Amino acid sequence: MAWIETVVNGLLLGGLYGLIGIGLALVFGVMRVVDGAQGEFMVMAAFFAVIVLAAAPDLHPLIIFGLAILFSFCIGYVYQSWIVNRSMQSSDPLAPLLLTFGV
Predict the structure, then answer these.
(1) What's the Cα-to-Cα distance from 68 to each of 41, 48, 53, 84, 90, rounded to whole Å?
(2) Is the pTM of this model over 0.85?
(3) Are 70 and 64 in contact (CB under 8 A)?
(4) Choosing a second label site near 53 at 20 to 30 A (CA), which of 11, 29, 39, 65?
């Protein structure tokens, strides 16, 4: 019976990887860039929220959440406009892909 569970888990995980691959291929086909740094931006926003919470523990959590969103939006905007858009101007289609995965 353990092999049935292993097969089902393998099929589900393979399906998940397939969906991720299809989504990335669709985004790359339409926008010509896949941002591999999304997780890093989420972690950066979480660290910012922890730092703000340590500096001002009396703030309401929704205010800290809003500040983290605003901070990550500003950093993401600068990242997109200064770094990613410049790499997309090159003739190599893999330059933005390598850049975002490198970040």
Answers:
(1) 10, 6, 11, 22, 32
(2) no
(3) no
(4) 39
